[in-house]
Design a protein that fits this description.
The chain has 18 helices and 23 strands. It is an alpha/beta fold. α8 links the parallel β8 and β9.
């Protein structure tokens, strides 16, 4: 058995991992050797059902390629109908006991998980770099933002508190938050660790069980997290992972045992999931597309504003739902445009493990082609001030690279109207703050917006009048920390209860209200115990 394992490792590193960079290859081999559910050397990704990593019997598979080299990393199954049913059945069976497990035991799971995530952060980050293409520091940030949700979930003994009042003599009414049952989460490719960690800890500490479908493009981080959940003491069946595309998504929407669905992703899939899921009586939260604007006022701190725009527009190759994709330059701030272009042109584009890389490749050749088409649509209408379409990265000739791109445009152009989801910043000039507010408020999306100014009065007017859910004042990406809740609006969100924070608790629970009458005069006296009370 040891010999066979050694032969498999040798075969993988010589024939499959050969095209990976020298920096990436040992990390890929280490991931394949250390983790049960994922491979980064050409093997298969497993289902996780009832506490077991199970080889799928699928006849259709999805190849996951390193976006920097097109090297095969793993093959992801289209989970079969039978396997999907087994996952839901495992979740339903586990719910019977997990929902009755004490809140203290569920809290301990979250505490153990956060410690294990920190201890194994490098493995998760390496998987993200390999499969998704992020730079290593950005991949570490992906995990950290998810880890913060886990840390906040450890406060469940306070956040799950109910309400009680004596409504009449000896009569009490009290409200408890109780779990829903089996829930599902459908995660996107752009945050392979953070988005699963928006759901896993919140569902678990509130007493639910979960069926997770990570993105079929980069499931490795989720599979590592599942193994860490197991090590943290999560019982079999509380978390299950299935894979695939439309068929798996439709199975989630249709299965009668699944009570709620959490989704983050694009418009088309999100609307489909929301409509199909709610039609089947499920609670659904769906975060969709975005077009986030940043206003730069003439009185802004120039250095802060320009650096913030560059970081928020081009970080993660623009593949963030809270990326700044439109800069609205007001009055004299328009004269800063040449310096904005100059700074953006200095960013280093390379493989995610390379020292000093500022942005890596986009997720796939199809994504690259779409981004290039949207940039090209600006020709003849706007000005392409910085063109990243033809960038060449010598060490990675097969990579899905698009360089930082800046386009001067107007709101009628396709590059403004569409969510590009790439390293492209559209610049629109406006005369006044009121003009800029009109542009933002007329846009169909409402995830977030930012303003750069040194005037408190200007900031107040912006905060009051802008119609988006998440506002940054001298902060380019105003994603709230998880003691608060995500709050995108307009066309960026479907549902009535948002992610994590208090909203996350509400999404994964329902209220149960009890009114009881115990007359004091009916009491029967007994001797009190003097032993220290303990609770488990």
């Amino acid at each position: 058995m040891v010999l066979l394992a050694a032969q498999r490792r040798c075969f993988s590193s010589s024939s499959v991992s050969r095209a990976l960079s020298a920096a990436a290859r040992p990390k890929a081999e280490q991931l394949s050797d250390q983790w049960k559910g994922t491979s980064a050397t050409g093997g298969t990704t497993k289902n996780f059902i009832g506490g077991q990593f199970v080889e799928s019997k699928a006849t259709e598979w999805i190849d996951v390629l390193d976006p920097s080299t097109q090297t095969l990393l793993t093959r992801v199954p289209h989970t079969t109908n039978t396997e999907f049913e087994q996952a839901v059945d495992a979740a339903a069976e586990a719910y019977k006991s997990w929902s009755r497990t004490s809140v203290l035991a569920r809290q301990r799971f979250a505490m153990e998980l956060q410690a294990l995530l920190r201890q194994n952060a490098d493995s998760i980050a390496h998987s993200i770099v390999l499969e998704q293409g992020k730079t290593l520091p950005d991949a570490q940030g992906d995990l950290l933002r998810g880890l913060q949700v886990v840390e906040t979930a450890t406060g469940i003994t306070s956040t799950l508190l109910g309400e009680k009042i004596e409504v009449s003599k000896d009569m009490d009414t009290y409200v408890r938050k109780v779990p829903l049952g089996v829930c599902a989460s459908i995660a996107p490719f752009n945050f392979p660790a953070m988005i699963p960690l928006w759901s896993i800890p919140m569902a678990a500490v509130t007493g639910n069980t979960l069926v997770l479908k990570p993105s079929e493009r980069d499931p490795g981080a989720a599979m590592i997290i599942a193994e860490l959940c197991q090590r943290a003491g999560l019982p079999p069946g509380v978390l299950n992972i299935v894979h695939g595309g439309v068929n798996t998504v439709n199975s989630i929407c249709d299965h009668p045992a699944i009570k709620a669905i959490s989704f983050v992703g694009g418009d088309r899939a999100g609307r489909h999931i929301y409509e199909r899921g709610t039609r089947n009586g499920k609670r659904v939260q769906a975060n969709l597309g975005a077009k986030n604007h940043a206003i730069v006022m003439p009185d802004a701190n120039k250095n802060l504003a320009l650096n913030s725009l560059i970081g928020a527009a081009f970080g993660a190759a623009g593949q963030r739902c809270m990326a700044i994709s439109v800069a609205l330059l007001i009055g004299e701030a328009q004269s800063w445009l040449p310096e904005l272009v100059e700074r953006a042109a200095k960013l280093k584009v390379s493989g995610g493990f390379e020292e000093g890389a500022d942005l890596g490749p986009v997720i796939s050749p199809a994504a690259k082609a779409r981004i290039i088409d949207l940039i090209s649509s600006a020709e003849g209408q706007g000005k392409i001030l910085l063109d990243g379409r033809n960038i060449k990265v010598a060490a990675y000739p097969e990579g899905n690279f698009v360089g930082p791109t800046i386009i001067e445009a107007n709101t009628s152009m396709m590059c403004y109207q569409a969510e590009i989801f790439g390293p492209v910043l559209v610049v629109v000039k406006a005369d006044t703050l009121d003009d800029a507010l009109d542009i933002i408020n007329e846009n169909r999306y409402g995830n977030g917006a930012a303003i750069f100014t040194q005037s408190g009065a200007t900031a107040r007017k912006f905060e009051t009048e802008v119609n988006v859910g998440q506002i940054g004042i001298n902060v380019p990406i105003p994603v709230p920390l998880p003691m608060f809740s995500w709050s995108g609006n307009k066309g960026s969100f479907l549902g009535d209860t948002h992610f994590y924070g208090k909203s996350g608790i509400n999404f994964y629970t329902q209220n149960k209200t009890t009114t009881s009458l115990w007359k004091a005069e009916d009491a029967v006296g007994t001797r009190a115990s003097v032993n220290m009370p303990t609770h488990h």
